[in-house]
Amino acid sequence: MDAREASQTPGGAGEERVGDGEPGPERTAITLAGEGVEVLYGTRDEHLRRIETTFGVRLSVRGQQILVEGEEASRKVVVSLFTQLADLLGRGYRVRGEDVTTAIRVLATEPATPLGDFFAADGLMASVRRLISPRTLKQQLYVKAMLEHDMVISIGPAGTGKTYLAVAVAAVMLSEKRVRRLILTRPAVEAGERLGFLPGDLAEKINPYLRPLYDALYDIVGFEKVGRMMERGMIEVAPLAFMRGRTLNDSFIILDEAQNTTTEQMKMLLTRVGFNSKAVINGDVTQVDLPRATTSGLREAQEVLAGVEGLKFVHFDERDVVRHALVQKIICAYDRHERAREARANGGAEGGA
Questions:
Q1: Three-class SS string for the chain?
Q2: Cα gap 280→149, rounded to integer Å
Q3: Residue 233 and residue 129: Cα distance in Å, rounded?
Q4: How many angstroms separate the CA atoms of 135 and 112, rounded?
Q5: Which range has the worst mean pLDDT, 13-22, 127-136, 241-250, 313-322?
Q6: What's the burial of 104, exposed, middle or buried (CB within 10 Å: 0-12/13-18/19+)?
Q7: CA–CA distance, 223 with 238 (Å, rounded to integer)
Q8: Does residue 188 contact residue 267 with C-beta atoms inside 8 Å?
Q9: For 180-239, how does the pLDDT look when each residue is reduced to its tens digit (9 = 90+)?
Q10: pLDDT band at 91 (very low <50, low <70, confident <90, very high)
Q11: How high is the pLDDT of residue 202?
């Protein structure tokens, strides 16, 4: 005999717990009501397949009813995912396919996250989301940190959106006249290669090092608009050495690849920040290209600046990688390899002691 307990959420998603007395996983039925709910399924049910893989459940769809089979904890998260997204649709929020993917990633990391707060932003956050949407909970916290603090230091692997999101926030603050100029800088350090003699004038020689910053600017602001803003002095892209001796007032400063700064360079940049300015320092401490005997300014800053009021640290990990799925797997593989190598080294050192 079937036992059914039903509840209704404001967004038009009804939930029923189904148990038939037979062995096997319990099932929960969700009824989605309202227009636009098909976006939650994805093209050829791609979102449903992603949900099954991520949360370890099995989904069956009959019209607007979704049957969720699996462990209770996983079922609860999946039910929360569908009901919260249905609620957003019911409130008039335009849920896109990438929003569903983001919601899956966010709840897989932190199941208790209110998706309404995550997507339905206001104020400056809403302006940022019109340019670019944070795709993980940590990215959302990173954007909020940049809006609320005068200095933010973000540390994490490649592909977590550290530079891209910083450029988006800077573009919004520039367009709303919260700052008068955007300054992007990075140390001119070769990544394990010797590029040799580069032809051209000084600007042409340093451009290869600054290309990633230009790429982010062009993608977010637009090629022609960036050109006009650079001509007017509103945007400046320069190597770190050009920052010495300056006081940067009314500016949004982004230091990229900060793991390749020396102690002196890091201190120099941090002390350039003037009145009504913000500074964002980005880097990956696992990809230091400095000579072995040189201390990374970013690594040292983690210790020196810990607990400094008004400064916010944001740490990303492989779960925040939003590039190709293989990038996340590659980062995890290198992390495992590095931990195993350190364990062997420590074991050898203890054995020889």
A1: CCEEEEEECCCCEEEEEEECCCCCCCEEEEEECCCCHHHHCCHHHHHHHHHHHHHCCEEEEECCEEEEECCHHHHHHHHHHHHHHHHHHHCCCCCCHHHHHHHHHHHHHCCCCCHHHHHCCCHHHHHHHHHCCCCCHHHHHHHHHHHHCCEEEEECCCCCCHHHHHHHHHHHHHHCCCCCEEEEEECCCCCCCCCCCCCCCHHHHHHHHHHHHHHHHHHHHCHHHHHHHHHCCCEEEEEHHHHCCCCECCEEEEECCHHHCCHHHHHHHHCCECCCCEEEEEECCCCCCCCCCCCCHHHHHHHHCCCCCCEEEEECCHHHCCCCHHHHHHHHHHHHHHHHHHHHHHHHHHHHC
A2: 10
A3: 26
A4: 16
A5: 13-22
A6: buried
A7: 18
A8: no
A9: 999 999 887 754 444 455 555 555 556 676 777 888 889 888 899 999 999 999 999 888
A10: confident
A11: 52
- Contact (Cβ atoms closer than 8 angstroms) between residue 137 and residue 109: yes
Amino acid 24: pLDDT:
46
Q: How far apart are CA 186 and CA 210, in angstroms?
A: 7
